[in-house]
Every structure is written in structure tokens, then in C-alpha cells.
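Example 9 (inverse folding). The structure is encoded as follows.
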């Protein structure tokens, strides 16, 4: 399954409005191995498309999986290890070549803007579109971005350099209009947007029809938490409590538990322990060490702790559909 922005039909427009999908573009850690690539993923929420981390070769993965670069307006970089941002300068250049004019927001720890500006300075000048950097405080859980669709919060993590994960939460949807009530009360279409927002409707004779008789509860909001490189860190549990999808790094299996402390990483079992305590809907593992070829091993170690787990694979799409 691919993320696509090509549709024009009413049916596809409705699908876009209910879409909440994560697609993995890169699932390996520092070194590419066994056909796996450095970290990158795209999250589609309704019509919005967000890029999360941008390891080397990300734009090549765009081509493989049908992701259109200029549909992305926000990029979130978790930390400044190369396997999470070395693909960025190439992607930004491609956006220039594709004629981008609209602004691009990049959220990252301190230092990324300086590195990108130096590269563009010596490679022919600034991008022809507004490039807006937003410096994150990786030690604070706070709102870093919002629009009409979603709020994005930082998640403080514990790695060898300043690192933050990201929590994406949909904003509440409008209530659902009961179609039969439109004809029953001769409701003009101009009044429907307000009714969906919770307003009552008043008939010409002054009778007030309560909103509860005109509408149904809205579709539940959905959420996604991205926990990039980190040691086992229980104090993130209240932040990610109950999310629909949790992506948590699982660089090692338990045979290399001793390496998690010095390297600032987690095992598949530790990721499952976080998922269980946070009562998440589903756990996706990733950021695998190049020491491992067989990804089923990660699932086998995590499932006894948390059943709803999958070892993430590149190109796969993981969606959330509510009622």
C-alpha cells in the first residue's frame, strides 16, 4: 500500500479526510544493512503529510513508495545523529528543483539550522522558498506545532545527544449531522456548519431543537507517538498513555542488553514494557542494529510482554480507523 496524493474524486476526498496512516521509509540504525535504510517515516493525517526524521537516501525512498516531496510542509528531526538527518540537504535541494515556493517548517534541536545554512551557502545559495527552522528544547514536553488538523508535542528522550520524540494528536472532529433531520426540520445548508460545531437549531416559530437530536458523536480522534533513539525511559509513559500507535526504537535484542546503556538505545523487550505500561493500541518496532538480519526475533522477544506488536518493515503502512 502506498501513500498517494493523486486523487480527485469525491470518494477519495472522503478517504483523505478519514486517513491516519504511518508509512516507514527507513527502519535501520546507523548503518544500512540487509536492504534496510536509515530512519525516515511519513505520517498522513487527513490531507496533511508530515516527514519524521530524514536519514540518508530518504528522497530515494520517496520515489520507491510514491511520496511527493512538495506535499510535505513540516519536517520533524528528533536529533542530530547523521542517520536521522543526512538525507535532509538532498531533499531540500530537490524541493527547489521541483519549483517549490511555499514555506517549509523544520523542527529540530539546536544546531541543525547552522549546518543546513552552511551547506546551502557553499552549494549555490539559499532555497527559493521560505525555510523556517524551529529550535526545540529536547528536555521539555511541550506543544511545538499545531494547525486546524493536529497538535504535535515533543517527548523528551534519553540518548547520547539531545533527543526528542514526537506525539501527534488529532484535534477534535465536528459532530456528525443526522441526514434525515435536515429534511425533517427544513434546515438550510448554511446552518449545518454551526450545528456540526454543537449549536442548536431554532425553527421559524421559535422552537429550539437541541443539538443532540440533530447530530451524532464525532469520530474519535487518533494519535501517534514516535520514540526515536532512547534508553529505557519510564517517565515518557504519562505522555504517550493510550496512543493508538507507538513507534519505539528497538536497536537490540536481549542478547545485547549490555550495549543499551553506553549507546543510548533500547531492546525490543524494553519497548514492549513501555507499550504495556502506556496501554497503547499498537507497538511498532524499528531502528534495528545491522547485527540482526531476522526481524522476527524482535517480535518474538516483545510479544510475551505486549501482544499487539510488529517489527516494522520498510514500505509498510500502519493505519488507524475509528468507527
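The amino acid assigned to each position is listed next.
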Amino acid at each position: 500500500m502506498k501513500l498517494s496524493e493523486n486523487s480527485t474524486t469525491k470518494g477519495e476526498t472522503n478517504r483523505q479526510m478519514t486517513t491516519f496512516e504511518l508509512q516507514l521509509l527507513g527502519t535501520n540504525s546507523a548503518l544500512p544493512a540487509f536492504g534496510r535504510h536509515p530512519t525516515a517515516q511519513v505520517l498522513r493525517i487527513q490531507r496533511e503529510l508530515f516527514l519524521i526524521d530524514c536519514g540518508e537516501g530518504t528522497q530515494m525512498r520517496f520515489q520507491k513508495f510514491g511520496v511527493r516531496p512538495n506535499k510535505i510542509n513540516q519536517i520533524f528531526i528528533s536529533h542530530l545523529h547523521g542517520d536521522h538527518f543526512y538525507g535532509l540537504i538532498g531533499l531540500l535541494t530537490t524541493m527547489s528543483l521541483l519549483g517549490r515556493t511555499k514555506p517549509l517548517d523544520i523542527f529540530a534541536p539546536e544546531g541543525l539550522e547552522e549546518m543546513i545554512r552552511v551547506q546551502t551557502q557553499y552549494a549555490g545559495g539559499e532555497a527559493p522558498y521560505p525555510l523556517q527552522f524551529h529550535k526545540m528544547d529536547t528536555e521539555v514536553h511541550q506543544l511545538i506545532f499545531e494547525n486546524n488538523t493536529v497538535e504535535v508535542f515533543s517527548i523528551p528522550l534519553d540518548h547520547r545527544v539531545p533527543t526528542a520524540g514526537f506525539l501527534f494528536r488529532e484535534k477534535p472532529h465536528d459532530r456528525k449531522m443526522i441526514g434525515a433531520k435536515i429534511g425533517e426540520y427544513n434546515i438550510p445548508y448554511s446552518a449545518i456548519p454551526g450545528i456540526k460545531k454543537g449549536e442548536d437549531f431554532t425553527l421559524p416559530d421559535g422552537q429550539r431543537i437541541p443539538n443532540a437530536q440533530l447530530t451524532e458523536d464525532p469520530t474519535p480522534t487518533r494519535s501517534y507517538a514516535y520514540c526515536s533513539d532512547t534508553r529505557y525511559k519510564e517517565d515518557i509513559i504519562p505522555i504517550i498513555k493510550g496512543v493508538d500507535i507507538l513507534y519505539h526504537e528497538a536497536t537490540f535484542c536481549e542478547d545485547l542488553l549490555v550495549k543499551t546503556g553506553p549507546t543510548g538505545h533500547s531492546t525490543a523487550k524494553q519497548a514492549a514494557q513501555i507499550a504495556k505500561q502506556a496501554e497503547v493500541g499498537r507497538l511498532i518496532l524499528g531502528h534495528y542494529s545491522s547485527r540482526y538480519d531476522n526481524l522476527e526475533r524482535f517480535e518474538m522477544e516483545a510479544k510475551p510482554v505486549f501482544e499487539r506488536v510488529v517489527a516494522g518493515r520498510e514500505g509498510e503502512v500502519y493505519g488507524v480507523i475509528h468507527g
